[in-house]
Amino acid sequence: MSRKQVVNDLYQDFLKQSVKEGLVACYSENDITLSPTPISSGSIRTYNAELKCSGTGTPVLIKSVVNGCYNCTKELRID
What we know:
Elements: H1 3-20, E1 32-34, E2 44-51, E3 58-65
Antiparallel strand pairs: 1-2, 2-3
């Protein structure tokens, strides 16, 4: 296993554990209204968004890893 793959696996494990512990909230795409224009660029983009499921349109920030920037081809699934 390459060093990059080990690091990617560690990040994925950290993120999955953070979601399970409630440190990171996880919502479906249907629960979020996403602004089409990112407010930052690079390998991790940040977008303004609103949570529809809150009933009040709570403003949030969404961070998205740009596909291919980290040479990770596995999809992260939180079940």
